[in-house]
Each structure stands twice: as structure tokens, then as C-alpha cells.
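Whiteboard transcription, Tuesday session. T.W. wrote the C-alpha cells on the left side:
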């Protein structure tokens, strides 16, 4: 099937494509978490949740493989390196108590995925200590074991964890389609340029579309029986 996209249509087979939802965690998206502690307006991220929810539901109906990631650290912070801990000279930083538990610490309320996008059984959750989804995780092994070659990407933030993950995926040979209304940034200008960078130069890192065009493609594929599968 094909999704209308830039720089040109994205062809994919739902059997070998996965939906990758990056870091839709309370700490980033809801008020009172790490995102807000960094001085950001979290409503900019919250607006990516409803379209992502629609994409998640459609991907489940289509039987696609779905993977979620969370950025965070072990409770003893043994996987939090010095530079990440101290960068920003924050009053309230990673590992410190926040309104939703210790910030970006695994097992804490704020670290977990937002209620609207709660993973289901059979949808792996990748806990990652870095910005990229492949760094220091078993994501690549999980995708290759399943025969996945293409990724439909949603999540936050556009220019940080989404961009790092798309770049890592691109270098590992995955085609990435980023749904622009399902990713967001605390900085609208970074979002805009981040999206442009993905699709520039003939799709240097991948393709860009949106939730509507992706949902339209899935609906059309379900309405049109595939060659060889028609009855009678
Ligand atoms: N998930 C992710 O993007 N982590 C960040 O820290 N993003 C910021 O934009 N700060």
C-alpha cells in the first residue's frame, strides 16, 4: 500500500512495517513533569496525542507490530552518565523528586506512557537511557526478529528523541515515515525545521506524511481486496 507523503509516496506492507511510538511519557507530555521543569509549555506536546491515538488504534486493527519507547533510568541511576545528569544545571533534574515521582526514573508514574496511548500485551516497550531508540537497547534485535523493514514514527520531541531515532534507524537500513502531526516539540520552529530536514534532499532521513493520509491509506487497503485474495 502507499501513503501520500513527501518527498514522494511511501510504499509499505503492514506485515513488515512497525508503528514506533517514541517517549510519549507523562514526564514530557503532561503538566508537572520533567518537560515543564525544563521551562517548557507541555501543551505543545499534548496536541500530538489525539492523532497518535487514532493511528495506534488503526495500526492495531490492521495487525501491525507496535513498539513503544520510554526514556529513563534505573532507580540507582547507574545508567545515567555524568554529562546527562549535570547538563543544564537544573534545580530539578533526572532522578530528583518531582510531582509525578522521581524524574525519568523507571517505575515512577511520570516515567510511564500517557494513559491515552497505554501499551497492550504483545506491544514491546523499550526502555532507553539515551535520546536514540537504538542506543543501548534491544530494539534492532526485536525489529529484525520480526522481519520489520519500515517504521511509522510518532512521538516526542521532534528534534530530540524522534530525530535521533530516525537517524539511527536510517543508518541501520530501515525506511522511516514520520507523521508530522503525531510528533511535536516544545519549540515550534525546531519542529518545523526538523520535519523539513527529514524529507530534504530526496528524503535524506526518510519520508513525512500525517495521520490523515496514513489512516486514509490503511482504510483504502482494507476496502480493496488484494490481488489473489479476492473471493469467488
Ligand atoms: N524524548 C525526548 O525528546 N527527550 C527530551 O529530553 N526531549 C527534549 O526536547 N527535552
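and on the right, the sequence the group agreed on:
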Amino acid at each position: 500500500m502507499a501513503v501520500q507523503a513527501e518527498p514522494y509516496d511511501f510504499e509499505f506492507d503492514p506485515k513488515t512495517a512497525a508503528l514506533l511510538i517514541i517517549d510519549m511519557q507523562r514526564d514530557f507530555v503532561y503538566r508537572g513533569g520533567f518537560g515543564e521543569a525544563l521551562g517548557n509549555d507541555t501543551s505543545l506536546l499534548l496536541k500530538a496525542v489525539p492523532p497518535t491515538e487514532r493511528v495506534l488504534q488503526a495500526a492495531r486493527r490492521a495487525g501491525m507490530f507496535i513498539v513503544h519507547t520510554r526514556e529513563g533510568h534505573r532507580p540507582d541511576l547507574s545508567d545515567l552518565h555524568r554529562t546527562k545528569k549535570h547538563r543544564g544545571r537544573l534545580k530539578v533534574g533526572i532522578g530528583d523528586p518531582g510531582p509525578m515521582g522521581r524524574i525519568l526514573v523507571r517505575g515512577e508514574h511520570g516515567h510511564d506512557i500517557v494513559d491515552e496511548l497505554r501499551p497492550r500485551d504483545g506491544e514491546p516497550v523499550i526502555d532507553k537511557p539515551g535520546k536514540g531508540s537504538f542506543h543501548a537497547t534491544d530494539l534492532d534485535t526485536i525489529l529484525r526478529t520480526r522481519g520489520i523493514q519500515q517504521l511509522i514514527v510518532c512521538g516526542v520531541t521532534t528534534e530530540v528523541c524522534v530525530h535521533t531515532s530516525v537517524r539511527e534507524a536510517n543508518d541501520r537500513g530501515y525506511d522511516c515515515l514520520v507523521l508530522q502531526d503525531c510528533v511535536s516539540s516544545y519549540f515550534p520552529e525546531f519542529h518545523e525545521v526538523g520535519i523539513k530536514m527529514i524529507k530534504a534532499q530526496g528524503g535524506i532521513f526518510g519520508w513525512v506524511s500525517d495521520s490523515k493520509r496514513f489512516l486514509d491509506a490503511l482504510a483504502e487497503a482494507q476496502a480493496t481486496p488484494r490481488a489473489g485474495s479476492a473471493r469467488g
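Someone added at the bottom: Strands lie at 2-3, 10-11, 17-22, 65-71, 97-98, 101-102, 125-128, 150-156, 175-184, 207-209.
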